[in-house]
Design goal:
Blueprint (H helix, E strand, L loop, with lengths): L2 H23 L9 H9 L2 H33 L3
């Protein structure tokens, strides 16, 4: 198993914990009205924002998977463990 996989196994629980903690921290902020967000919701344009963010994250994920596969191929050629 490569070091990157071991590192990811250690980092994933930490990121999950931070995500759960920050959810509670921002709960108070959602009680206040944000005029821009309200306007986007009224016009139905909030879904455009959500779609753009989803496309950006999907692009980042695909790019990371491509880089990972290329790196595995190079490691295999060089017999790096």
């Amino acid at each position: 198993m490569s070091n990157s996989r071991i590192t990811m196994k250690r980092i994933f629980p930490l990121l999950l914990t931070l995500l759960l903690i920050t959810d509670k921290l921002f709960a108070q902020a959602s009680e206040q009205a944000v005029p821009m967000a309200d306007k986007l919701r009224e016009d139905g344009k909030i879904w455009v924002v959500v779609a753009v963010i989803a496309v950006v994250f999907a692009g980042i994920a695909v790019n990371m998977l491509r880089i990972d596969s290329k790196l595995r191929k190079i490691e295999k050629e060089l017999n790096i463990k």
